[in-house]
Amino acid sequence: MASDFSLAGYIVRRARLVGGSVLENGNPFFAPLDRLQADARSHGTVLTSFANYDYLGISDHSAIKNAAHAALDRVGVGALGSRLVGGERLIHADFESALAKFVGSEAALTLVSGYLTNLTTISSLLGKRDLILYDELSHNSIMAGVQSCKADAVEFRHNDMEYLRHVLQTQRAEHRNCLIVVESLYSMDGDIANLPELLKLKDEFNAWLLVDEAHSIGVLGKSGRGICEHFGEDPKRIDLIIGTLSKTFVSCGGFICGQKVILDWLKYLLPGFVYSVGLPPVIAAAAGAALQVIEDEPSRVGKLQDNAQRFLIKAREAGLSTGPAEGYAIVPVMFPDMKSTMAASDYLMQRGIYAPPIVQVGVPKGLPRIRFFISARHSFEEIDRTIEALKAFSAGLAKTPVPPEPVPA
Ligand code: PMP
């Protein structure tokens, strides 16, 4: 048989290798949310979605929509250039200073994507003879940054501060600069980095600390200011706080918060900022309005925290496996294998609950799960109903005999 050298053939073979077989069991991905919502409405119900980052339930807030409309009328959709040369708008600096103030840093800089922000910052900051230490459960954008970085890289066991100390003790001295990279609220497991210990280690070993707060701004701390507010630490002690506008700020884009002198130079040096278009002004306006809503309506943060704690407690009472989740906006529920994870998601969908499966590629092969994004928008009734459905599904699963493993020929 002639070999297939086509690009299409190559892509299909690669996709199979990295887990394309998932799709052969029925494709639960790319379900248009508006269609699911319309379907639910046509049955006289309302879709309960646990699939969206809208942690504070503000994506349809009139103040945000109005701000976007007004910016659209005033300055149009796009920035029409790199901010360095033509793409700068008044709204960029306004939003960035409001954001820095909210986070508690000296300054902020926005980029067009959260993914890009990690990738470009991590890959371009360090060079040869430097050392980068990163948590093994870091988001793919952090991994991509590490992979494109010339520094020596060491992965440390998830949230294992003893191990991190050991690596610093054995490897720090022979390197010039050292950067520790962690997430604050882990996106697949829902547990939190040990910030007090990280700050101690950073000081002791003369390292820099980058914290990805993608999932914790608007989520952790009494007023949603993130991991520093949660632990009562000063945000200025973290060298670089990275975040995204796609989650609590219900729009799109990434940001870096840190010292003004650092960001003033990154504006000229950071490839993903310099060589990419500025944040669309309409998006900056929407994110700015979202920030204002978070400040004006602080009870949303409390409601989110109550909801997430309730979800976690009820899930554990129901005997569901929630891994190390701490009950802040992200709670995974683990299943024994990919097939049962997909079936659980389908079972929920049939009951008007949208919670897609997360299987290999997103998480390690043996740890499939449904990741529940909790929102201030959810009612206690929706949470309780979801846990009841998961409990019923799991009870059915326990009764189903496990088919024997196929014997290799
Ligand atoms: N960091 C983390 C921890 C994330 O989970 C994500 C995306 N979910 C990103 C960065 C990338 O952000 P964005 O989707 O806004 O590009």
TrEMBL record:
One of its GO terms (molecular function) is transaminase activity. Keywords: Aminotransferase, Transferase. It comes from the Bacteria. This is Aminotransferase class I/II-fold pyridoxal phosphate-dependent enzyme. It holds the Pfam family Aminotran_1_2. PANTHER family: CLASS II AMINOTRANSFERASE/8-AMINO-7-OXONONANOATE SYNTHASE, LD36009P. Residues 48-390 form the Aminotransferase class I/classII large domain. Its cofactor is pyridoxal 5'-phosphate. InterPro entries: Aminotransferase_I/II_large (IPR004839), AON_synthase_class-II (IPR050087), PyrdxlP-dep_Trfase (IPR015424), PyrdxlP-dep_Trfase_major (IPR015421), PyrdxlP-dep_Trfase_small (IPR015422). It comes from Rhizomicrobium electricum.
